[in-house]
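Moderator note: this is an archived Q&A kept for reference. The question asked for a predicted structure of one protein chain; the sequence and the answer are reproduced below.
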Amino acid sequence: MNKTDLIEHLAAKHELSKAEAGRVLETLLDAVVTTVKKGGSVSIPGFGSFKQHARAARNGVNPSTGAKIKIAAAKLPKFTPGAGFKAAVDPKAAAKKAAAKPAAKAAAKPAAKAKKK
């Protein structure tokens, strides 16, 4: 799905004109970009969060010449998907994770009681 398809989907779903749906999408994207650019984060529960990630300067190698080069530090956007999004994409993995949580908690309880004694 590209931007045009997304605008058409928004317009059809919410009975908007394509121009109105385009403005809504542009406003949303502009808000996310502006917030992350300023160092903030945008969190949408169930979907995920957008934030700024700082990559440290490091040394690298030019693959064609083999010469060592310095790679400058960079600020990059980072998206972390939420649990709902992950579950929608891969329900089997979400079910496995949900089943593993009670077992992990049950194993942790006896260990915690042993430490208290």
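Archived answer notes: Residues 91-116 form the longest helix (26 residues).
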